[in-house]
Amino acid sequence: MDALNTTNHPRHLVKVDSLTLEEILRILDGADEFRDPTNGPSLLAGKLVCLMFFQPSTRTRLGFDVAVKRLGGDTTSLDGPKYEQGMGWSEPLEDLLRVVSDYCDVVVVRHPSTIALEHALPYSSAPVINAGSGREHHPTQALIDLYCIRSRMGHLTDLRIGMVGDLAGSRTARSFVQVLAHWAPAELRLMAPPGRSLDDSVTSAFGAGVVVRHPCLVPDDLDVLYVAELPNAPDSPPYDISLRAALGVTPARVTALPEHAIVLCPGPRLDEIDREVDGSHRAAYFAQSRDGLRVRMAVLAHLVKHCTNKAVQYSGRWGTMND
Ligand code: CP
């Protein structure tokens, strides 16, 4: 730790708790200003953002790539088969982060281990944005979920929110519930197979009677239905037809939602939502991924002021450059 910059710690976004409520609201309001992403201010002009993905991603990786470029910045990446297959793990993450943050102004990291990411953070001289770590954290997805709900419902308080799927295995579900604690839902209905719900430590911030648990999808009276993956992972219960019958999002179940309700899914959508649901006016999951771009632009705009200016003042053989 001797050579670390201890006087000028960069600002990181690792979990939803890294942000105050005021900052979250500023980001959501800021995202409104990027409704036309092609017309954003050049807030990242001259900035280079590194995308370090140790797990596959479509929305988050491409969303950050495009968001940076829409804000006038540029990206480079440390991903591809080598890192996604874990071959890069032989080099400690802290060493990688130390090297990369010396080259770039912001680092966006997706990693299978939250512990490894948190351990490596002090070695970064640039702000780090967590693009999904372990089973615990996906803060920018949680902000996107909030933004999508607020822009369609007009508010975030007093809603009946249902969450269905393998909630225990979902970092997006966990992050969403953690950030939702800033508001007071009328009900948080957790619909998951036995042993795959969120445990009490995640939901302890909610008042008595708010959290309701079911082993199957109960759509009645929900304002928002949040759909997580159904268990498929090697360490989850095996593929189970009856489980899909109990928890799958079918056209009939979506029709049973109130008229104004919305269906969200952080993606990727596999077999948890019937494709026929896509035609419903309640299906908001593709709009949600579209909203993701402006939310990520707002996150970058919020963090850019914490970037260390890596440009150097140069005077010598090639003349004078003052960046
Ligand atoms: N929601 C989400 O994280 O999607 P990707 O895995 O495609 O980034």
What are the SSEs and their pairings?
Layout: H1 21-32, E1 48-53, H2 59-70, E2 74-78, H3 81-84, H4 93-103, E3 106-111, H5 114-120, E4 128-133, H6 139-153, E5 160-164, H7 171-180, E6 187-191, H8 200-203, E7 211-214, E8 224-227, H9 241-247, H10 251-255, E9 262-264, H11 285-303, E10 313-316, E11 319-322
Parallel strand pairs: 1-2, 1-3, 3-4, 5-6, 5-8, 6-7, 8-9
Antiparallel strand pairs: 10-11
Bound molecules: phosphoric acid mono(formamide)ester (CP).
Written overview of the protein:
There is one protein chain. The protein has helices spanning 21-32, 59-70, 81-84, 93-103, 114-120, 139-153, 171-180, 200-203, 241-247, 251-255, 285-303, and strands spanning 48-53, 74-78, 106-111, 128-133, 160-164, 187-191, 211-214, 224-227, 262-264, 313-316, 319-322. It is of the alpha/beta class and 323 residues long. The protein folds into two domains: 16-139 and 292-309, Aspartate/ornithine carbamoyltransferase (Rossmann fold, 3-Layer(aba) Sandwich); 140-289, 3-Layer(aba) Sandwich (Rossmann fold), CATH 3.40.50.1370. The model is unreliable at 1-7 (pLDDT under 50). The structure holds phosphoric acid mono(formamide)ester. Phosphoric acid mono(formamide)ester is lined by residues 57-61, 132, 138, 141, 172, 266-268.
